[in-house]
Amino acid sequence: MKETREKILNAAVRVFSRNGFHQAKMDDIAETAGVSKGTLYYNFESKSLLFSATVTEGMEAVMGEIRTSLKSDLPFIDHFRKLIDINVDRYIRYSDLAQIVFNEVSSGIDESVLRNIEEVRGRFIDLVAEELEAGQADNRIRPCNTRLAAVAIVGMMDNLCNLLVRYPGSVDRGEITDFLFSFLAAGLLTRSEADKAKGRIPDPPMKEKA
């Protein structure tokens, strides 16, 4: 049962990414997954619920990856960089699906499904806020409203990754991660933590590519 469900979710990612939410057909998802329509509908009663599972479980996977990386004994500054790198890499890996979430998620999807997606997004913001709070407790992050800072960080990552995906060649992955890291480090790290990190924080890009 679990294997069948995973096959369906993997197929859904491909079909939603290729066709968008509104043009995606449950028949196509069943065919791509190699299951019958009955099996598909047994696992997911509607396209909206399947889309919700595809998005929310993808976000849960990102959070799991971040939590695992934060359990290491790496210095705080490396944890901070890991949080950015993992999120950007997952966005790029599932860029087509991320575009659907970014641009289409509020149109024609059940309210309950939207709430599920927003709930998981809220938990991701909580995870970022918790990491900032841990940094504050160790005098590595400046005093600030960590919830607001987390919302700002997630919003910046979403919008910069969206730029990367929508306008290929205008900016590359390294520029995105370096900019986020240097910009956020400059605004959030305490002076003592910033001094320890000297030479490890890249300068942000100063001008657009010609």
Structural class computed from helices and strand pairing: mainly alpha
Helix content: over 70%
Biggest beta sheet attributes:
none
CATH class of the largest domain: Mainly Alpha
Secondary-structure element order, N to C: HHHHHHHHHH
CATH architecture of the largest domain: Orthogonal Bundle
CATH topology of the largest domain: Tetracycline Repressor, domain 2
Spans of at least 5 consecutive residues with low confidence: none
Specify the overall morphology.
elongated
Give the mean pLDDT. 84
Number of helices, where a helix is a run of at least 4 consecutive DSSP H or I residues = 10
Radius of gyration: 19 Å
CATH superfamily of the largest domain: Tetracycline Repressor, domain 2
Measured distance between first and last alpha carbons: 53 Å
Q: What is the number of E strands?
A: 0
Number of domains: 2
Strand content: under 5%
Outline the secondary-structure elements.
Blueprint: H1 2-23, H2 26-33, H3 37-43, H4 47-70, H5 76-93, H6 95-104, H7 111-137, H8 146-166, H9 173-188, H10 191-196
Helix pairs in contact: 1-2, 1-4, 1-6, 4-5, 4-7, 5-8, 5-9, 6-8, 7-8, 8-9
Quick recap of the structure?
One of its GO terms (molecular function) is transcription cis-regulatory region binding. With 210 residues, the chain is mostly helical.
